[in-house]
Amino acid sequence: MGLLVDGKWIADEPTVQTAAKDGQYRRADSVIRSWVTADGSAGPSGEGGFPAAKGRYHIYVAINCPWAHRTMIFRLLKGLSDVISMSYVLPRRDSRGWIFDNIDPDFVDHLFGKNALYEIYQQGHPDYTGRVTVPVLWDKERGVIVNNESSEIIRMLNTEFAAFTDDDKDYYPEAARAEIDSWNERIYATVNNGVYRTGFAKTQEAYETSFDALFDTLDALDQHLGKNRYIAGDQITEADWRLFPTLVRFDSAYYGAFKCNLRRLMDYPNLWPYTRELFQVPGIGETVHPQIYKAGYYSKSAERNPSGIVPKGPIIDFTEAHGRGAT
């Protein structure tokens, strides 16, 4: 995958391991953690000086990345498409990591015309060491990355740009925060990151441990959603939108490519219609691209898919009536 070390791109990092000696996959923490706030004051982490403003910020995303998908969803839900601009990297990586295709207008770096995302990191943070990941929240005025942690970016989009949107929905309401945080913690560890811990495990024991934890949580969610409309009750919250990108990729990618094959999403009596309901929220379906997910997760890999064959199936109809009442 490559990474930057002191601002220099290293395409092949044989000394950098994503799996520990116990065979378990370890995801590196996001490094750049400042916040955009309504008045420019410092947020929960990082430095201040990033006031919300129309046209000042730009987001870099990848269609096939579930973490970036979160930010795409919140930008859409909060009506910020004309407030925060966005560029897509290609839905694949090469020796340069995430890359652009500056001939294809759908995958152009609109700000600088760069060829690879690592060049954006170098431009804003010349001494950066770490993974080059999406999403990236860029400040056009200061010429730096504000944040590359999706869970924090969606919190900013939820509240800090209120002056520039007519949407006043709060996806992290104070009364439900304890429940949202509790589910977020479990879902991140065992589902969002759990599918990767399963798919990238290096030992049978590590694989089975992650596999069991993944389906324990999916089973618990299915039971919970049999009694509750959404994760935190009768209102869609951040917890639902953090879970959705994993669910919408599950049957087309994780079930096969990552060996998460105890049950399909479509086998769950509550999780499956719940996922369809979220998909059918106006605009959300436009952010979902199963064929691109398959192409990415089944891309040629010496370890996981040496032939590079992308499966034709399965047939998944997210538009089927969900039967859970009006959205």
Write the layout of secondary structure elements.
Elements: E1 3-5, E2 8-10, E3 57-61, H1 66-77, E4 85-88, E5 93-94, E6 97-98, H2 117-124, E7 136-139, E8 144-147, H3 150-159, H4 177-192, H5 194-199, H6 204-225, H7 238-257, H8 271-279, H9 290-297
Parallel strand pairs: 3-4
Antiparallel strand pairs: 1-2, 3-7, 5-6, 7-8
What does this structure look like?
This protein is of the alpha+beta class. It has 2 domains: 3-164, 3-Layer(aba) Sandwich (Glutaredoxin); 174-297, Glutathione S-transferase Yfyf (Class Pi), Chain A, domain 2. 34% of the residues lie in helices and 8% in strands. The protein is built from 9 helices and 8 strands. It has helices spanning 66-77, 117-124, 150-159, 177-192, 194-199, 204-225, 238-257, 271-279, 290-297; strands spanning 3-5, 8-10, 57-61, 85-88, 93-94, 97-98, 136-139, 144-147. The strands form 3 sheets. Strands 4-3-7-8 form a 4-stranded mixed beta sheet, with helices on both faces. Strand 3, helix 1 and strand 4 form a beta-alpha-beta unit. Helix 1 (66-77) packs parallel to helix 3, helix 1 (66-77) runs antiparallel to helix 7 and helix 4 packs antiparallel against helix 6. It is globular, with a radius of gyration of 19 Å.
